[in-house]
Amino acid sequence: MLKQVSTYITYNMIGLEHGSMLANALEFFIYDTTKIFLLLSVIIFAVSVVRSYFPPERTKRILSHKKEFIGNILAALLGVVTPFCSCSAVPLFIGFVEAGVPLGVTFSFLISSPMVNEVAVVLLWGLFGWKIAAIYMGTGLLVALLGGFIIGKLRLEKWVEEYVYKFHLNHDQEITRQTFRDRIQYAKWNTADILKRVWLFIIIAIGIGGFIHGYVPQDFLAYYAGPQNPFAVPVAVAIGVPLYSNAAGVIPIVYALMEKGLSIGTVLAFMMAVTALSLPEIIILRKALKIKLLGVFVTIMTVTIILVGYLFNAIL
User: Fold this and answer.
1) Which of 68, 132, 161, 294 has its CA 20 to 30 A from that of 223?
2) Count helices and strands in the chain by DSSP H and E runs
3) What's the rounded Cα separation, in Å, for the pair 313 and 234?
4) How far is Cα 274 from Cα 6, in angstroms, rounded to an integer?
5) Cα–Cα distance between 42 and 176 in angstroms, integer?
6) Across-strand partners of 160?
C-alpha cells in the first residue's frame, strides 16, 4: 500500500520521469518516511508502557547488588528497553557510577542503550527481515558485554573524574506506583515527545538515504567500501564516528547502503559506530571520564566493532 502511494505521488502527482535519479530518490524518501514514522509511532507507544516499569532508580537498584558479570548481562539487556541515545545515556551512566554500580557494568549499559534499542530492532526487522535484526541485536549485546567486561577487569575507576563520586542522588526516592491508565497516558506523551525530538534527525537521515539511493553510483560505493576493499570496515567506522543519530535515524541510510551492494558486516559496523561511538557522546563523556579512560573506551569500542564487521563479512 505504502509503495503504491509513494509511486503514485512521485510519477502521477509530481510527474517525474520513470527511472530518473530524482524520481528514484524521491520515491525512496516518501516511502521510507511514511513507513518509518508509522512504525515508530506504534513501537514507541508499546515500548513506553514497558519502560514505565523501569524508572532510573529501579534500574540502579537492580544493578547495584549483583555480581559483576551478571550485572554486565543485566545492564546490556536493560539498555535495550531504556529510552536513551548515546548522549542522553551519559547522565544515567554518572548516576550508576555514583550509586556504586561497578564501572564495567555501567559501560555495558552505556554501549547497549543507544546501540540495541527495541525501536531499531523492529525497524531493522521491517526493512531487512528477522535474521538481520537478530544478528544486529545479538552482536550489539555481545559488543556491550565484551566492552563492559574488559573495562571492568582493567579496574580503571581511578580514571573517572572525582566529582562523579561526589555527585549525590536520592537513593531513597520511591518509585511512583502508577495505574495502567497512567501508563497509557505516559506512553501517549512519551510517543509524542520522542517523535518531536527525533523527527528532524530521521527526515535528514532519510534524505541522505534517498540521495544515496538515487544519485550515488553503485560502482562508487563498491570501490570504497565494497567486498573487494580490505579496509571497507575501518572506513565505514571512521565515517560513522563524526555522525550523530539514534539507531532509528540511521537505518534509512543503512538501507540505502545495503541496496548499493555493501556487505552486511560493513553496514553493521557503520551503524554501530554512529549509534554507540559518536563524536558528541565522546565530548560529553569527557566531562565524566579522564582522557586515559576515554581513550580505553574508544579503543575497545573501535576494535570490537571492526572485528564484528569483518566477522560477518566473512560468514555472510
Assistant:
1) 132
2) 16, 0
3) 13
4) 28
5) 25
6) 289
Query: CA-CA distance, 111 to 114, in Å (whole number)?
Result: 7
**Largest Cα–Cα distance in the chain?**
65
Angle between helices 103-115 and 68-80 (to 10 degrees): 20
The predicted-structure confidence for 43-83, as pLDDT tens digits, reads as follows: 668 767 766 776 656 666 667 655 667 888 888 887 777 65
Burial of 224 (0-12, 13-18, 19+ CB in 10 A): middle
DSSP state of 176: P
Say how far apart CA 264 and CA 247 lie, in whole Å: 16
| CA nearest to 40, candidates 206, 249, 274, 180 | 249
CA dist., res. 251 & res. 245, Å (int): 10
| Cα separation, 19 vs 33, whole angstroms | 20
Give the tens place of pLDDT for each residue, 169-221: 444 343 456 788 888 888 888 788 767 766 776 687 678 777 776 776 656 65
Query: Could you identify the residue written with the cell 524521491?
Result: 26
Mean pLDDT of the chain: 76
Cα–Cα distance for residue pair 39/81, rounded to 1 Å = 17
Q: How many CB atoms lie within 10 A of CB 243?
A: 18
Measured CA distances, 198 to 77, 118, 188, 190 (Å)? 23, 15, 16, 12
Count other C-beta atoms under 10 Å from residue 25's C-beta.
22
What kind and span of H or E run contains 197? helix 180-215
pTM metric for this prediction: 0.65
Cβ atoms within 10 Å of 22's Cβ, excluding its own: 14
- Distance from chain centroid for Cα 44: 14
